[in-house]
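A common beginner's mistake is to predict each chain separately and then try to dock the pieces by hand. The better habit, illustrated here, is to supply every component at once so that their relative placement is modeled jointly.
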Amino acid sequence: MPRRGWVTAASRAVTVLGVVALIGVLPWLSGRSPELSILRARSAEQDATPEALAAIRAELGLDAGPLGLLGQWLSGLVSGDLGTSWISGGPVGPGLVHALGVSVTLMGAALLVALVTAALLCWPPLHRVARGERGRTGGAVGAALTALPEFLLASVLLLVGAVWLGWFEPYGWTGPSSVVLPALAMGLPAGGLIGRLVADGLTITGTERWVSTWQVAGASPGQLGRALLRRTLPALTTQVALVLVGLTGGAVPVEQVFAVPGLGRAVLGAAEAQDLPTLQAGMLLLLGISAVFGGLAALTRALLLGRALRSGSVPVPARATPSRRRDWLLPGGAAALLVVVVAAGLGRDPLTSAHPRLAAPSLALPFGADASGRDLLARVAHGAVQTVGTATVVVLVTLAVGVLVGLLPRASVGPVEVANAAPPVIVGVLVAAALGTSQAGAALAVALVAWAPIAAYVAAASEEVRRQRHVTVLPVLGVGPAAVTWRYVVPAVLPAAARNAVLRLPGVALALAAVGFLGLGAAPPAPEWGLLLAEGMPYVERAPWVVLAPTGALVTAAVLAVSLSGLSRRPRRPAAVPTGTTAPAPEQPAAAG
Amino acid sequence: MSRPVEGPVLTAAGVERGYPLPRRRPWGPRDVVAALRGVDLSVGAGERVGLVGTSGSGKSTLLRCLLGLERPDRGTVTVAGRAVRPGSTASLRWYRRLVQYVPQDPAGSLNPSSTVRELVSVPLRHLHVPGDHAAAVTTALTRVGLDPDLAGRRPGELSGGQAQRVALARALAPGPVLLLADEPVSGLDLPVRDQVVEVLADLSARQGLGLLLISHDLAVVARLCDRTVVLADGLVVEQGPTADLLTHPAHPRTRDLLAAVPGLPV
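With all components supplied together, the output reads:
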């Protein structure tokens, strides 16, 4: 219907413009006064007289209010001026363009790694399905290993590949060998995710009836394999695009860990130094890269589907097979492990330096001591409580927001897409730039993106409820739209949405740790997990246990998050042939006469 | 029970409705398929009219226009001279009290988590029907031949026939003068289907309720309706007393419909 398409398009446009405007008024939001540092950067001798400072403020347009500032920034962008650094006083453009080149090279290499990883993960299920064997959704174990957060994988790869094995450059951007580890750190999680999506999709496609028809008709495994891919891939392009856009988020921690002079490290440095013009321009470039990935995905989808897309008759893949008891084994084990660690460490003191610096693990100090002589077991346990506590608050907030926004499926398309695509790390950088670094800021940043999957779930589920016959009849009984929503749709959707939100708790905790790892969250003495890992990184060669304790905890949480996310994709009764159409038919199908 | 309404209760005049088709090419023109091409129809007070036609003849689109759920591109739907068109919930309450609706497989439209009492009182509350709602629920249940003691049960605790009757009672609760029924028995098991047909016959023939029955099933139409209207390709191609129409069909589309029903009991 034309009107609905209009609402969706407007929602997308308004959201993108809103994000750009938000970036544009960042200096006003942060309320900072950069004139003194700019004055010092330009000339050491000049006195900081009120007149000189006022002149710089006027030059930067800081007193023009948010709209004036936005106008100046946008008109500068149009004329190719990306702004003036608040630190160096020079133009930010040239440095960022160089950083963009580095990041694009790195992302290209990461993309290659991702594609190879995904292909390796998809090969066994494709092979199996093409030869007519049915099985459960495949590749889960291999995918779970690669679905670690980038900052964690980067730390582990640095430890193994550069420090222990000494094969690759640990830091910098000196030649081909310095691309390998960062590309692996960014590409493996992305490839793991894509591989898992495609493997699940292939297994589900394999249960459709046409597959057995083809087999009976004597199609070769090769023919069948190609057909299976063509049937499976179009439905996944949107999700794959999200994974690729996520590469921009992965670039920040990975470039930070390996000291790669790319865009991610530039925006992180700019946020730490409060150099907002650099941050604004860098964010805009990252947004541009995301837009290119999104556009490529949309183009691929349009080419693969053609007219079927416009008629709205795209087959919706059936959901995964119902969860069984043994699917709870992995998450149950991971959760039990975390509970044991927390129980053992909660009674101990996480803040006092009561032990020798970097003491090795022993019976008295099971995880060893950190560089300040603090008990690592106590810090990991208290960190778990702090991180999980914050994550719980975030989950409750995102549940409320997700349900409210999800009830407006068409108007919420734009915000949901942008928030779904925005990596928490990037949002963390933005929030830190506007509000300064704090645990509350980290929670806000994660909440700003974590509501989107819940809203998308609620939108899909409420559409389904609205199509149920006991709801479609309500208008004729005089029940108005508001009453339909609040008395029928919300009560039907809420329990599953809450379950979905709770299953996302470990993922939210990991996102908080990722933001904390970059120094954008809790302040140093706090035993926050990401911070623990970041604090331990400089001592990784002398005392690996400083890194192993938080790494182990984070890996356990990651396993928990990934295995739970598999369960949260609520199983439907498996349909033999999915024939669902997305567009509501103008007429209810009359029974065949 | 039924209020005196002069002349035709419900009138559709020159109703046209089209739906845009997906574009063949992204830049191409949008084709429109015409579902209704100028339909005239009226149902008098207490009259029992059958609306028949094959799939795609426009029956369901016409029904949605008659129910004020869809706006005709051209033409009007009126009740006693008052226009019925999609609008706010409040602006259509008067109409929904007069004209109620029975969907296909009526029991399927019952919320499984509500009790019979809650289900039947939904239209009473939302249509602001004056009077004692508890008494109205009892009356409605009695009219469809149900024991009012069932009011505390939920749809899952009822037999198939009882559940169908509850759905009919819900439509009757606000005291309508006309029921629009959309394929009310298609897809039902035979015994249940006979029960629904029996209740509809009782309501329309003996309790004086008007009925517009939409169906592709001529046997049910023959059982329930005095007059039959044949819809084909969005137009009324033939209408007349049901008995005449079934024995002497004039239009080829009517003959096609009849040919599809073996051993029609006329």
